Amino acid sequence: MIWDLKIKNLLVPRNSDGGGKLKICHKSGFTLAETVVYIAVFVVFSALIIDFSLSLLNSWGHGKSTRAVARNGTIIANRIAQEIRLSSSVSTTTSTFDSSNGRLEMQSFLTATSTTPEEVAIYLSGTELFIQKGVNPAVSLSGEAKVTSLVFNYFLSSTTEATRVALTVETGVGKYAKSRNFQTFAVLRGQ
Fold first, then answer.
1. Distances from the Cα of 24 to the Cα of 10, 12, 30, angstroms
2. Domain for residue 22, yes or no?
3. Measured between alpha carbons, how far is 179 from 110 in angstroms, rounded to an integer?
4. pLDDT tens string for the chain (191 positions)?
5. In total, how many domains does the chain have?
6. pTM of the complete model
7. HEC string of 30-49?
8. Helix (H, G, I), strand (E, B) or coil at 54
9. Residue 150 covered by a domain
10. Is residue 112 in a domain?
């Protein structure tokens, strides 16, 4: 017999001489039980893949927030320490010490080798940290982070003037929000 027609996935044989009656040959398919098993296996694998993907995205979001809070907090703490090291003195009358909404006002210099003095103020307004140099407008140091606490501690000895800074930085939103405390200590440049 020669197989020459395909009608709806059924193979139809003819006699070798091209004539004769057509015979329909039924090809067996999947049973209902097999189909249900295949669908169940597919659903289980799909659920595992979706769960893994969601877990991966969740981990990525937490990791991103953790890195952002570490990066922003380190940059802010280093910048404040740099400004303190450039300063010759702290204004104890206009600064706010030992408070979570601290303010530090100093007599500073433009650069490490400069002798030109300028007033510098570092303060917290809401959750944004600002630095103001001289008569210039205040500039935000917060970036994408929120600073929820800023505490300055002032130390004075017979030979040294220093300031300790403690701040709390937050980044992220919702379940990805991260908060971390940072501390730095800097000795003033002096006269």
1. 7, 5, 19
2. no
3. 32
4. 444 444 444 555 555 555 555 555 566 677 888 889 999 999 999 999 999 999 999 899 889 889 999 999 999 999 999 999 988 889 999 999 999 999 999 998 777 777 778 899 999 999 999 999 988 899 999 888 999 999 999 999 888 899 999 999 999 888 888 999 999 999 998 75
5. 1
6. 0.72
7. CCHHHHHHHHHHHHHHHHHH
8. helix
9. yes
10. yes
